[in-house]
């Protein structure tokens, strides 16, 4: 049996864990997940995992980057892995709340809707993000590696910082790990470390444009709890909370983005659904 397959089989063979076994430090003093709408959540146990593979002599050997990555994909597909994710997540419709903190410390809150048309690779993905603030409403669209904005049915060119922030959600998100093979990205195992009492497998994913994202993957559950990336000399960290299942795939229902040590964005998913038909006209510039 191939090492990666054996590693994945061991994940299912172990005893089950509750969906809340591994969490990251909460910037809101552990705000309860009950505050998030639960329409699309499915309460299912997550399989526990064994971070090491037994060798023929009964001893344990260190994991590889591929084993960690493939085991994570396996868990996010609730045992079905890549095949399940590709089948179920052909489209995504997500709605929720977002809170953005400006450089001056002003906090703006908005409702958002996100539509995703899945493609073979992330750079061919189609993504539309609608945001409704108290005094403004606009959309950002990612299509054929180009970003444009829409306001009142008119096309505009977003500010560079807004475009970059939107692009980073895509290229430095969970999908860059879950689809590393499709994207022909390079993966490197960095180390196994304990952070705030939690053991992590640390994995780097470097895409074909040399953009690096570092993932902190729980050695106990193989869920991504944090990721890091750098842009223009600023180090960003996104933390993931409130994991649960939606249509048989694992979803973090809340995330927080830090620039250095400052919280700059929080996102709470209200509902998420996969596989629904999406009008492709919403991704077109006119």
Please outline what is shown here.
The chain has five helices and 17 strands.
The number of distinct β-strands equals 17
Look at the structure and give the mean pLDDT: 85
What integer value in Å does the Rg equal? 19 Å
Number of self-contained structural domains: 1
How are the strands ordered across the major sheet? 10-9-8-7-6-5-17-16-15-14-13-12-11
Q: How much helicity do the residues have?
A: 10-25%
CATH class: Mainly Beta
What distance separates the N and C termini? 52 Å
Low-confidence stretches: 1-6, 8-25, 27-40, 47-55
User: What series of H and E elements makes up the topology?
Assistant: HEEEEHHEEEEEEHHEEEEEEE
- The CATH topology is outer membrane lipoprotein receptor (LolB), chain A
Classified in CATH, the superfamily is Lipoprotein localisation LolA/LolB/LppX
Look at the helices and sheets and give the structural class: alpha+beta
CATH architecture grouping: Clam
β-strand percent reads 35-45%
The total of helices stands at 5
Shape descriptor = globular
The oligomeric state of the chains shown is single chain
The largest pleated sheet is described as: 13 strands, antiparallel
């Amino acid at each position: 049996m191939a090492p990666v397959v054996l590693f994945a089989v061991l994940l299912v063979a172990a005893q089950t864990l509750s969906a809340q076994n591994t969490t990251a430090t909460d910037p809101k003093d552990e705000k309860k997940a009950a505050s998030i709408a639960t329409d699309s959540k499915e309460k299912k146990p997550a399989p526990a995992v064994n971070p090491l593979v037994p060798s023929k002599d009964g001893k344990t050997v260190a994991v590889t980057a591929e084993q960690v990555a493939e085991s994570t994909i396996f868990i996010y597909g609730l045992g079905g892995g890549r095949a399940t994710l590709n089948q179920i997540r052909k489209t995504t419709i997500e709605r929720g709340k977002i809170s953005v903190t400006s450089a001056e410390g002003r906090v703006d809150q908005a409702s958002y809707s996100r539509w995703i048309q899945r493609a073979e690779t992330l750079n061919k993905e189609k993504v539309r993000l609608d945001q409704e603030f108290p005094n403004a409403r606009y959309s950002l669209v990612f299509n054929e590696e180009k970003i444009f904005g829409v306001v009142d049915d008119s096309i505009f060119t977003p500010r560079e910082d807004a475009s970059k922030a939107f692009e980073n959600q895509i290229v430095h998100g969970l999908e860059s790990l879950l689809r590393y093979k499709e994207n022909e990205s390079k993966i490197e195992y960095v180390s196994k470390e304990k952070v705030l009492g939690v053991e992590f497998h640390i994995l780097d994913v470097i895409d074909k444009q040399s953009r690096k994202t570092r993932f902190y993957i729980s050695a106990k559950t193989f869920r991504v709890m944090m990721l890091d990336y750098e842009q223009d000399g600023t180090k960003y960290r996104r933390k993931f909370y409130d994991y649960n299942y939606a249509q048989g795939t694992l979803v973090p229902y809340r995330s927080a983005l830090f620039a250095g040590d400052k919280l700059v964005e929080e996102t709470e998913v209200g509902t998420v659904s996969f596989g629904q038909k999406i009008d492709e006209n919403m991704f077109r510039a006119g």
